[in-house]
Right handed beta helix domain-containing protein (Streblomastix strix), 317 residues
Amino acid sequence: MIICLSHQQFDVSGTNYYVASDGDDSKDCRYNKCKTLQAATIKVDVHYAAEFKVIIRDQTTISSTFELSQTFPSPRTFSNNPDFMRFSDIYISQYGQFIVTGNALFEVIKFTKLDQAQQQNGGAINAQLTQLLSNLQINTCLFFGCKALSNGGTLNLFINYPKEITLGNILFNQSESQNEGGAFWCSINNGAKLTIQGGLDFQDCKTLSDSGYGGALYASINGENSQLIFQYFVTFLRCSGQTGGGMFLRTLSGGNFTITRQWTFTNCSSSTSGGCIYLETNNGTVNFNPTEHIVMENCTCDGSGAIVILKEVEEEF
């Protein structure tokens, strides 16, 4: 069914909601453009619609927490304008944040933080996936200037059930947190699997505190069959933290970490240990070849080493 409004045609088959800079939040977003993600139609229907997709025609804003808790088979989806081959913008105000406990998908979106950090974890997205039907997909997205008061300046991801989550083709730029994971914090547990299917780029990301771990990326893989797999290239540019200027990695109790393509660290730094990577293992498995998969250029550490490996049980390299 096609409905024509103000000389614009939208497909309103019951699943699409529209926002744009010239929209009006008092309208029904299924048939007219709303302005922000706080529009009543969107905030109500996200909890009840069997299928739910927000199409951002050009740009929109989020000024408060937006909970995505439903576990319908069809994810709560936020996508760019399909009429143009370009990113659509979500501007995140001071208290804005997506909280994901259900099933959500973000694709071809540029997220920009406008104000100082007010969220403890996950400056843009805080995902706590503890149900079997919970899921998070982030495909081809850009994040600029996101900040958190504690962990995961941009993305905080906790997975606690045996299911595969996939992410890929993501840029993190100027992201920061106080404690762990300047851009991306993840904890993978109880047989969960996180697969990075496309490239990740970290630029100018950092942790700020004197006990900061993982200037760009903090990852903990805990439990038998829990896995973190990188299937594509990853770059770290000018990232910094106290321990692990680029990345802090911990594998525990049968957790598995695998790199299959090249990682590049350029001008990363640490004030204590691991200018590029700090790796800690305790009965976990790490699969990568440091001489083939890790490229380092102009990385520095005031303490010990570009790559620091703390092993309590023999691992595979």
